[in-house]
Amino acid sequence: GSFKNPCDKTFLGSEVESELEVKALANFIPTHFDIKLYLTIHAYSHVAIVSYSYDYKTHRNELNEIVKGATRVLASLYNTKYNYGPGATLVCCQVSFNGRAVLQKIFDEVRLVDVLDSGDSAHLTLMQRPELGVTLTKLHCWTLTHYSKCVFMDADTMVLSNIDELFEREELSAAPDPGWPDCFNSGLFVFRPSNETYNQLLQFSSEKGSFDGGDQGILNSFFSNWATTDIQKHLPFIYNLSSVAIYSYLPAFKQYGADAKVVHFLGRVKPWNCRYDSKTKSVTGDSQDLPMLHPEFLNMWWDIFSTSMQPLLAEHGVVIHSEPVCQSDEATEAVSRIHVGAPPPPPPMSSAERKQKWEQGQADYMGADSFDNIQKKLDAYLK
């Protein structure tokens, strides 16, 4: 594989260094390759939509940087000898500056998604249904219309083998949910970017909401015929193998588990909610839910993360913060931490600053400028 790429067939030719060589390659690729995209959700903080793809139309520079790996999901994909590399990323405003720097070093396109400041129908929908804030950020993946087809993946998934064949499926192709098989699990699905679909999803979200409070409820209601129409849109369970389902139906896992393509670490405890000993390559944790994570896949996740992802994060001063049930012994000893959970509350704004925000249409409708607070202020003046 060229371009320092661990894949065999991702790029043609030798490594390029100059801008002219990059532009020449960028002009060559669109006439020889289809446009395809992998997409994942990566929670550096509240939400960050992180896509990994090689955008053959818009790619212009830093080809040598795209294979270093910005997320553990991307690193696991590299290990499968996939044929399509990284390109675009969507992030929300809660992602730290250092976290964005890592993404900008690797991906061709970094697009900030801020529903509260979008000025479009997504903003209006959020005002009507504030509980859907995270979900509305995720739905922005349908706005990546410079790609013809995408595969969406959650950050708590791990790719075990090549999944290029997913691009042969149509929207909306997904695997059944282990808890209710008549619904699909939204941790991995095939879709076609479309502004029309995006706007329809926003309108649907505003009118119907979500039966489970998240994107899976909305998407299953919107694509309501998934369970009964085209069987070709039913992905085999091996494309979204739930770590919880492994123990709920162990005989089936013993029979089919060796063919698994993607593992999904469903549940409250994630691989990063553990302690990892890099010397013994063992994973431990305090949570009673930890035994539900298959040890083979759990160790595989940490091995990939520590070798492919952690060095890049450390280079930029980004390390996942340890919660009570999660820490990396190696990381806490070697690198200073930054918190990637909910960001600390900003300092109170002055009256002049709040007035300026109002005039710019950036009122804090969910906080200080909420209707309840405004009504309390008016009541206080009228007394």
From TrEMBL:
Pathway: Glycan biosynthesis; glycogen biosynthesis
Cofactor requirement: Mn(2+)
Main location, first listed in the record: cytoplasm
Domain Peptidase M14, residue spans: 4-87
Record key words, sorted: Cytoplasm, Glycogen biosynthesis, Glycoprotein, Manganese, Metal-binding, Transferase
InterPro entries (UniProt xref): Glyco_trans_8, GNT1/Glycosyltrans_8, Nucleotide-diphossugar_trans, Peptidase_M14
Record's catalysed reaction(s): L-tyrosyl-[glycogenin] + UDP-alpha-D-glucose = alpha-D-glucosyl-L-tyrosyl-[glycogenin] + UDP + H(+); [1,4-alpha-D-glucosyl](n)-L-tyrosyl-[glycogenin] + UDP-alpha-D-glucose = [1,4-alpha-D-glucosyl](n+1)-L-tyrosyl-[glycogenin] + UDP + H(+)
Role played: Glycogenin participates in the glycogen biosynthetic process along with glycogen synthase and glycogen branching enzyme. It catalyzes the formation of a short alpha (1,4)-glucosyl chain covalently attached via a glucose 1-O-tyrosyl linkage to internal tyrosine residues and these chains act as primers for the elongation reaction catalyzed by glycogen synthase. Self-glucosylating initiator of glycogen synthesis. It catalyzes the formation of a short alpha (1,4)-glucosyl chain covalently attached via a glucose 1-O-tyrosyl linkage to internal tyrosine residues and these chains act as primers for the elongation reaction catalyzed by glycogen synthase.
Official protein name in the record: glycogenin glucosyltransferase
Key word Transferase present: yes
Residue ranges, annotated region (Disordered): 339-366
Keyword Secreted (UniProt): no
